């Protein structure tokens, strides 16, 4: 749900910014900029996507995991899609996905957030399982029923 709210607010701010800047620079200039970044995004997705896929295949043939190529390809496709969307804020974020140093910074941030999230989930599961084992701990024998394997084979 929070991601939906974020996307809605981002789109709203992007359109407000587009219309406010468009009123200052004029309709024709705004249309040229929006269409130009849209075509640039489409070209980028086609060109860089194929090149990144070729690098990923090359690394897989060598026997390496192409994690950086996969992230680079995803960032380029995401950046190209943002460039195709009308709006100056989405164009700025799309251009940030194209700059290699910005991509590396995003990769480090996402990796850190991903590792932190995995560690937090692991810590929560460990705490829950530790509470479950301690709360049901009883002194004395454990009662239960069992069937030996010999009896199970005789019943068939």
TrEMBL record:
Pfam families: FxsA. It comes from the Bacteria. InterPro entries: FxsA. Keywords: Membrane, Transmembrane, Transmembrane helix. GO terms for cellular component: membrane. Residues 127-156 are annotated as: Disordered. Residues 146-156 have a biased composition (Basic and acidic residues). The keyword Membrane applies. The chain crosses the membrane at residues 28-45, 65-86. This is Phage exclusion suppressor FxsA.
């Amino acid at each position: 749900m929070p991601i939906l709210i974020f996307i809605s607010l981002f789109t709203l701010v992007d359109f407000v910014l587009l219309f406010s800047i468009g009123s200052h620079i004029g309709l024709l200039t705004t249309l040229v900029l929006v269409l130009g970044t849209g075509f640039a995004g489409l070209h980028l997705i086609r060109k860089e996507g194929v090149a990144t896929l070729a690098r990923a295949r090359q690394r897989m043939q060598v026997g390496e995991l192409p994690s950086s190529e996969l992230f680079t390809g995803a960032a380029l496709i995401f950046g190209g899609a943002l460039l195709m969307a009308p709006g100056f804020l989405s164009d700025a974020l799309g251009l940030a996905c194209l700059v290699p140093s910005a991509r590396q910074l995003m990769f480090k941030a996402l990796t850190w957030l991903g590792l932190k999230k995995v560690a937090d989930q692991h810590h929560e599961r460990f705490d829950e399982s530790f509470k479950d084992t301690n709360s049901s701990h009883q002194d004395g024998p454990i009662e239960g029923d069992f069937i030996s394997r010999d009896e199970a084979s005789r019943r068939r």
